[in-house]
């Protein structure tokens, strides 16, 4: 674009104005020398040319900036252009048709007796496996739910025979009940309570039943559950 501007005489009007001004000055004053008028005209032309070159440089700079931006946008548009894959449906192989004749031949059971014998053997094997699984399951130990209970057995007073009371508590027996260690724990005013542990099977022995049986003993005033843990 800079070469195009150089080939065109855009400053022609500037030179025409300078020439007109020169001849007008000559016609107005005959005493002025030709050399002075030429110097003034030349100076005027030089100023105009400098101003014009500045203006042209600014225009060219703007044009170059616009050209650079357009080039960048074109590159971005080329990079961002989506890639479209063409699919030729006509070139896809046709689906294979199912050979119905072969299927019809497969439906014909030419060895019916052999199939019946195989089904009987399969049923026998299945029954054997079921029987083995049932036997294995029956011999597997059943998980028994148990609980560890610590009871606080309180007497009526400080004159209660605590040893006799413990013996009477341990006399309570049942399937799924196992008594553990026992000790005397100070209660108040010199009175001690019997703290005894036990293990019960939840399905066979209930805590309410144990409490009722212990409270039925003559030396016992009350029973409290100090701890209850599942095993």
Walk me through the topology.
Layout: H1 2-7, H2 12-28, H3 34-79, H4 100-106, H5 112-139, E1 146-155, H6 162-170, E2 177-188, E3 191-201, H7 207-215, E4 220-230
Antiparallel strand pairs: 1-3, 1-4, 2-3
Domain Translation elongation factor EF1B beta/delta subunit guanine nucleotide exchange: 146-231
GO molecular function: guanyl-nucleotide exchange factor activity; translation elongation factor activity
Family: Belongs to the EF-1-beta/EF-1-delta family.
Structure description:
- This protein has 231 residues and is of the alpha+beta class.
- Among the domains are: 2-76; 146-230, Ribosomal protein S6/Translation elongation factor EF1B (Alpha-Beta Plaits).
- It has helices at 2-7, 12-28, 34-79, 100-106, 112-139, 162-170, 207-215, and strands at 146-155, 177-188, 191-201, 220-230.
- Strands 2-3-1-4 form a four-stranded antiparallel β-sheet, with helices on one face.
- The chain is elongated and about 155 Å long.
- One of its GO terms (molecular function) is guanyl-nucleotide exchange factor activity.
- Residues 146-231 form the Translation elongation factor EF1B beta/delta subunit guanine nucleotide exchange domain.
Helix percent reads: 40-55%
Radius of gyration, in Å, reads: 60 Å
Shape: elongated
- Mean of pLDDT: 78
Q: Which fold name is given in CATH as the topology of the domain at 146-230?
A: Alpha-Beta Plaits
What is the rounded distance between the termini?
97 Å
The SSE string, one letter per element, is: HHHHHEHEEHE
Name given to the CATH architecture of the domain at 146-230 = 2-Layer Sandwich
Structural class: alpha+beta
Low-pLDDT runs of 5+ residues are: 1-7
Largest sheet geometry: 4 strands, antiparallel
Strand content: 15-25%
Helix count from the secondary structure assignment: 7
Would you identify the CATH H-level superfamily of the domain at 146-230? Ribosomal protein S6/Translation elongation factor EF1B
Number of DSSP strand runs:
4
**CATH class of the domain at 146-230, anyone?**
Alpha Beta
Strand arrangement, major sheet = 2-3-1-4
